[in-house]
Amino acid sequence: MAYETILVDTKGKVGVITLNRPKVLNALSLDLSGELCAALADFDADEKVGCIVITGSEKAFAAGADITEMQTMTYMDAYGSDFGANWDQVSKTRKPVIAAVSGYALGGGCELAMMCDMVFASDTAKFGQPEITLGVMPGLGGTQRLTRFVGKSKAMDLCLTGRMMDAEEAERAGLVARVVAGDKLMDEVMEAADKIASFSLPILMMTKEAVNRSYETTLTEGVRFERRLFQSMFATEDQSEGMTAFVEKRKANFQNK
Ligand code: CAA
């Protein structure tokens, strides 16, 4: 499918989506959100893809929701269209999704990164929720996800002052999994994505579901959920192959079964 606001590519078993509105620092327009969700759904349905990467440009992952689209929006426009609800599709993706962030990840850009399963950042990355400076607040999950990542105090600091934090602070705070020297970011992201995609896909998907469940439930329920999923893995051929390969001192050959 031909897209206008994103580039889509498959490298081995990794689906790569590059946000591509360079003139406006990848501002997240409605068209972009539709195309991004469509591309994610396609990769999710593609049996040959085991991991997905979302990235932007060197200057910007994304500088937020498109302010020009929102400038004249009324309450009824926003409520009537349930503005922002389409983004829920990103976190419903069942395969692992890595955000590869260089430059600005602000507002909706920071929120998009947080919808992914892990964030790898170049040392040039800058994260923030500057909506307060525009007379609004984060609207794509920022107040909720950022607080879970970095805790209440820093989330308040970022949301109420609108300041940016650099990659090092974001890693220290728990928002970022790895910080990588700028020119090495995509190498490191693709290495991790290739590794993830080499494992059993159903087991990856169940693992992602279990980690995500920890956000939604109590510890007791979460541990029970994990245990049931773990037990169910013994119905897969990939469990048998993985453990047999270890015992036979060879590389496992997973079949996604
Ligand atoms: N929406 C629309 N256009 C944007 C944009 C955005 N979020 N961010 C940048 N642009 C445009 C600029 O208007 C500019 O366009 P022109 O060349 O036509 O003037 C172009 O991108 C380049 O931007 P700058 O000239 O401003 O670049 P800079 O290097 O001087 O500054 C920046 C970079 C600090 C990121 C600055 O562009 C900026 O502050 N952008 C807005 C960040 C922001 O407030 N994001 C939150 C958006 S609201 C949101 O996301 C709500 C939500 O949760 C749903």
Task: Offer a few descriptive terms.
alpha/beta, 6-stranded mixed sheet, 12 helices, binds acetoacetyl-coenzyme A, 45% helix
Assign a percent range to the helix content: 40-55%
Strand content: 15-25%
Mean pLDDT: 97
The description of the largest β-sheet is: 6 strands, mixed
Strand arrangement, major sheet: 1-2-3-5-7-10
User: What are the bound molecules?
Assistant: acetoacetyl-coenzyme A
Principal-axes shape call: globular
How far apart lie the N and C ends? 29 Å
Residue stretches low in confidence (pLDDT < 50, at least 5 long) are none
SS elements, strand count: 10
- Topology pattern, helix = H, strand = E: EEHEEHHHEEHEEHHEHEHHHH
Evaluate the radius of gyration: 19 Å
SSE-based structural type: alpha/beta
Count every helix, treating DSSP H or I runs of 4 or more residues as helices: 12
Notes on the protein architecture:
By secondary structure, the chain is of the alpha/beta class. The protein is 45% helix and 16% strand. The chain contains twelve helices and ten strands. The protein has helices at 30-45, 67-70, 75-80, 88-91, 108-115, 142-150, 152-161, 167-173, 185-197, 201-213, 219-232, 237-247, and strands at 6-11, 14-19, 51-55, 60-62, 97-101, 104-106, 118-122, 126-128, 164-166, 178-180. A hairpin with a 2-residue loop joins strand 1 (6-11) and strand 2 (14-19). Helix 10 packs antiparallel against helix 11. The structure holds acetoacetyl-coenzyme A. Acetoacetyl-coenzyme A is lined by residues 24-25, 27, 63-68, 84, 104, 106-108, 111, 130-131, 134, 138-140, 142.
